[in-house]
Write a structure and sequence with these properties.
Shape: globular
Organism: Alicyclobacillus acidoterrestris (strain ATCC 49025 / DSM 3922 / CIP 106132 / NCIMB 13137 / GD3B)
Radius of gyration: 19 Å
Largest sheet: 2 strands, antiparallel
GO molecular function, one term: transferase activity
Distance between the termini: 22 Å
Structural class: mainly alpha
Strand order of the largest sheet: 1-2
Helix content: 55-70%
Keywords: Transferase
Protein name: Glycosyl transferase
Number of helices: 13
Length: 383
Amino acid sequence: MLPVKLDHLQRLTDDTGLLEHAFGKIPRRKEGYSTDDNARALWLCIEWMRYAKRTNADEAIPLLCSLADKYLEFLIWVQGEDGRFHNNVFYNRTFEPEVPSDDCQGRTLWALAVASLDHPDERRIPTIRKVCQRGFALTSALQFPRGMAHTLSAAATLLTRMDEAQGDDVFVDWAKRELPQVVQHFAEHLCQLYATNQTPQWHWFEPTMTYANGVLPWALFGAYQVLGDEQIRSIAETSLAFLIERMTPGGVVRPIGNRGWAGPNHTSVWDQQPLEVMKLALASAKAFEVTGEVHYQAVLKQCVAWFYGENDAGQPLADPDDGGCCDGINEDGLNPNQGAESTLSYLLTEAIYHNALVEGGHSHGNHVDDAQLDAAKTRISRV
């Protein structure tokens, strides 16, 4: 049995894919679909299938496989012949006009890379790998750091786990030939961004911390696993430490607010987004995997606790009864809408946390005492 419910995720999912927004708990059809969310949803299913396989929660796998099929169908549908993924789709299944999104391309490649390694049904893996390989054809066109970071992480994960793809000679040969250059190029680019923008008081890749900040150190930890370059590891550790410092004042997670972002002399408090917490959890889990330092698991615990009321509002965003999650925190309280991004961010944070305990705890012998977190979840479930 999974430690989370997937009812709200199912509510947001129809025969086309995952709807983007909700009015309260009710899907808003007029807002349509985004590839960003469908890629995250595929990744979510794979993460929980990994957990289910390791903990013998086999009864959850059929539902997760069924949902994963819908999200994968969506990703195949929106991919152009050149490998580009179109991001925004109207409810009537026509594509919205848009400027191509590097972030969307990178997020989708990450989800496909993970699915190509961890999907439990071997019959689906050849298709996933073909779609993934075609998407990598556009890596040279990427210009923005977060799209690069997701693509770097996808390439690094494929390379570090390529032994699991043995027998698929075409895919293995392609990965070994093409992906080391992707990792090297994007790692160098992120390190150069850091060198350009960091100061003694500002250990960051850009003049301003904006959104999805955790993906930048996360990607460099993955690059270090491939390249073994200690400078890359140092930048990853230093930048993540700086992000944790900015996002945990007083020991409680406070996401960088979307209403003004953060600079050397200010940090926006409001319009806190669940996505930011999930990305911090993702980076911390990767840092724990690479370093074995237990304090990263403590950050993971704080990220999960944020969803259950350890936050500036003092209220839970997550609804354990159906797995939904409020869209954010403002000065007047919670945004009660429970759209795809926030719900996925909550469910992914839980998955990242539990997989870090299952995998990282075994490999490093470290474990965070989560009795307090379990107690918080119990209190919420009784409300």
